[in-house]
Specification:
Radius of gyration: 25 Å
Number of helices: 23
Structural class: alpha/beta
Strand content: 15-25%
Bound molecules: ligand MGD, iron/sulfur cluster, molybdenum atom
CATH class of the largest domain: Alpha Beta
CATH architecture of the largest domain: 3-Layer(aba) Sandwich
Largest sheet: 7 strands, mixed
CATH topology of the largest domain: Rossmann fold
Distance between the termini: 53 Å
Number of domains: 3
Number of strands: 27
Amino acid sequence: MTKDVYSLCFMCSVRCPIRVSVKDGQVVWIEGNSHMAGMDTSLCPRGAAGIALLNDTQRLQYPQIREGRRGEGKWRKVTWDEALDYTADRLKNIIEKNGPESVTLGERANLGSLVSKAFMKAIGSPNYFSHDALCKGSANTAFRSLFGYTDAQMGADLKGAKHIILYGRNLFESIEVRPAKALMSAITNGTKLTYIDPRVTVTATKSHRYWMIRPGTDLALNYALIHVILKEKLYDAEFVKRWVLGLPELKAFVEPYTPEWAQTETGIPASEIIGLARESASLKPTLFFHGYRSAHHTSEIYMRRSILILNALMGNIERPGGYFFKKGPGEAGGKAARKLTDLEFPVKSMPVRFDKAGTPDFPLPDPNHGVPQMLPRAILNNDPYPIKALIANRFDIIGSMPDSNLTRKALDMLDLIVAIDINYGNTAWYADVLLPESIYLERTDCVQQANGLKPQMFMRKQAVSPRYDTREAGMIFKGLADRMGIGQFFPYQNMEELVAWQLAGTGFSMADFEAKGFIPYGKDQIFWDRKDGLKITTPSGKIEIKSALMENAGIPSLPAYESMPSPPEGQFRLLTGRVAQHTHVSTQNNLYLNELFPENVLWMHREKAKTLGIADGDRVLVSSARSSGEIKAFVSDLIHPEAVFMAHGFGQKAGNATRSFGKGLSDAELQENVTDMVGGSPALHHTFVTVRKAGKGELS
Ligand SMILES: Nc1nc2c(c(=O)[nH]1)N[C@H]1C(S)=C(S)[C@@H](COP(=O)(O)OP(=O)(O)OC[C@H]3O[C@@H](n4cnc5c(=O)[nH]c(N)nc54)[C@H](O)[C@@H]3O)O[C@H]1N2
Ligand SMILES: Nc1nc2c(c(=O)[nH]1)N[C@H]1C(S)=C(S)[C@@H](COP(=O)(O)OP(=O)(O)OC[C@H]3O[C@@H](n4cnc5c(=O)[nH]c(N)nc54)[C@H](O)[C@@H]3O)O[C@H]1N2
Ligand code: SF4
Ligand SMILES: [Mo]
């Protein structure tokens, strides 16, 4: 008998709604949930490879405790009771000796985050951190500085725009299924696409206008666009007058940043910059400036602010085809699901965080997420206090943070590293205890409260029983909590009971998700009134180009532009990004995806390669100040001469993952750990590398 289970994909964190066909306890087919508007049955390659993950014999199958040295790969198989007793005892000991703040928990924010956050609140540690800063922390700060909301509290509507300008948002390879489809159908229906990237990506090939920008100079381009838009009064004067604070300051600030100046900095002809700015006169408000990942340079916050300022000048806020404020259930007359984090916890005042986010030392990064790349320094310097334990939940901090050697050196100082994972990732491989989670097809997760133009609730529902001796993270944390005397904060015996607890008071039950996998709170999209009804939560109630958040912390809203240095002769700026076939560091060992894309290559410009005597397909040695390694060269005209590019996530270190072990090169090993100290993101594209043809005996 075949049954359909509506659930949520988790081959990446986008959580696309899916329909899973199950026959005799086996998943036989996965496709997009066509009940979901804008989805139909589409999936990306990774979503379609979920079955290979389910049946993978190389994923984590049972709890294990380390036997050999860290990273040596010698493990002892143990029962869940032994693994949880051992971990809970070690944690209790560490807390007794060093205080609860010596325990840190890092995770990729996920549906179960309210369980892990509750766990940290219950033990009394402030040191919960998520991946957020590594991905888009400076965008988070930029949104808060301008709108008073985080980036996650605002959304991007691509469909209604007449012209979209994407800054390295490589949507046709760095995929989210619904936005990618929305962009595709918008283009089909006449939307124009301008794509800006130092590299000719798939998205570039679908654009009407492509600019191969000099790496790291988008901010100069935007200041010149703003210069023309303000000088020629091309902006939406009515919207700006009502909602924008700081126009006179902005006008004075951009005065020197002419298109001719920007041409020298960016390599984009002044006439083209002027041309794009002038299009806004006829197209506003539906000229949509958009970017996403925002961990590139130390000035990232200002680049992200400049994108948002351009939209504010167009009046492209809270309308179709622009950025909008996400609405919660309350706005649709409904009630949100309960969160464990709302319970009363005994510890009321916590010590400062390890990363000092939210203190005068590091005022702007979001303390709800923290700043992961600060962890190595905090550990190595015992600053602000000794840190002794790390729980890495669904988070590969060795592979996902710049400078893996520094990260490993810091982890070496810890008494305990626990990995809750599904694979032998780089961090799991370095851990002391492996607590294997059941994969998304094998588990029910916490309810997803999805705010948006139409608030909804989604459910990840178990499709098949676990193949191996694995558990849900929600049950793993509960198992630890019970053993540590804080079980009362986890009032459930299984995930279905946790979901029921969450739904109590909402008027919905788990059965309501059966038919379609999600529940909308209302029928219609909710837009606030743009004349008088925007609930902007900055101190002024306006979009703050002159930002109180920043200036009260002694940080300028509009500092002078600093030219992006070109790499010294013989060096290149190392760029990184995604490919359509892989998720970050986690799918390289997937049977299907590994076959589609087994290893990364180094993109480099033909002329530069020629002077170095490198031909397409040659093996080259790439070296930075932090590390070096070999990779195959991909030589073409498709990348800016100042840059080289490699796909993120390769060069895996876990020996038990034999398909991906040692294939390609890891960008994280080469990158320096440098941060945008205003916005909070690491500057992943800060690092320069040298490249030369690999000689015999030079294997590293
Ligand atoms: N050098 C460099 N660093 C980067 C980036 C880059 O391009 N270059 N990109 C940044 C970005 S944008 C992001 S979002 C982050 C992502 O950083 P991460 O979240 O660390 O990366 P992922 O590959 O998504 O997943 C990490 C781990 O989650 C595990 N996992 C997958 N599914 C499950 C599950 O169901 N349960 C559990 N418990 N574990 C699971 C995987 O096996 C893997 O070990 O990395 C950032 N860091
Ligand atoms: N297949 C796949 N899709 C994914 C993910 C995944 O792991 N795999 N992860 C998801 C996540 S967490 C995220 S954050 C998004 C990220 O999605 P994107 O924001 O699209 O991020 P990237 O793929 O990291 O980088 C996109 C492009 O930025 C370009 N770039 C580099 N330097 C510059 C520059 O100075 N200026 C400009 N304009 N461009 C530059 C790179 O060449 C690259 O092509 O993708 C999501 N979708
Ligand atoms: S984008 Fe792909 S991998 Fe990510 S959730 Fe959607 S279908 Fe799954
Ligand atoms: Mo990300």
